[in-house]
Amino acid sequence: MIKVVFFDFGGVIADEGWEKGLTEIAGLHGFDSKKFFDDACDVLWSTGYMYGRADEDTFWRLFAERYEFKMTRDEMRRVIFDRFAIRPQVIELIKRVNEAGLRTAILSDQVNWLDEFNDMYGFFGLFEKVYNSYRLGIGKKHPEIFPMVCAEMGIEPAEALFVDDNEGHIGRAKACGLNTVLFKDAADGIREIETIISI
User: Fold this and answer.
1) How far apart are CA 65 and CA 62, in angstroms?
2) How many other C-beta atoms can be found within 10 angstroms of the C-beta atom of residue 158?
3) 22: burial class by Cβ within 10 Å (0-12, 13-18, 19+)?
4) 1-20, pLDDT tens digit by residue?
5) Largest CA distance in the chain
6) Rounded to whole angstroms, how far apart are CA atoms 184 and 126?
7) Sign of CA dihedral 53, 20, 128, 180
8) pTM reported for the whole predicted model
């Protein structure tokens, strides 16, 4: 029986703004979009920014050592932020999950921006817990995070449903015993969640 539903942020609660925003920034500069995205991810992970081991200033400074930007940091930041559009239909689903008596939490690989998104849109109040890699110092590339958050919520992995758009994260969660939904299309993903938890 499912007791807790863990929702990813980018790609589930909101559009995946990181990739969309970087692709747009690359196009505005005439950069190769795949290389630009890969380089941004390399800086993100190699600095430890994703896990709170470096700050945002460090990320932008080291990224700027690889490219000559025409845009300011704030302009590029705004392009990325604007692409993280909250999905109203998913917010409504989360409300219905709560109303059905299930508990909900965010489990997201995000940086300090997640707090800023909440300041903008005010969605943290829908969740019992918010697990963010930037605050935890560990992310969904590490399988141990899944039993860890289940234990913190006081449940067994089999009592959790994990919703994410990343196949690797889904595979690791499933291997740890969690029920999963690979959320690629919002309408299909919502229907699958509704079926699993019978709402």
Assistant:
1) 5
2) 13
3) buried
4) 999 999 999 999 999 999 99
5) 53
6) 22
7) negative
8) 0.96
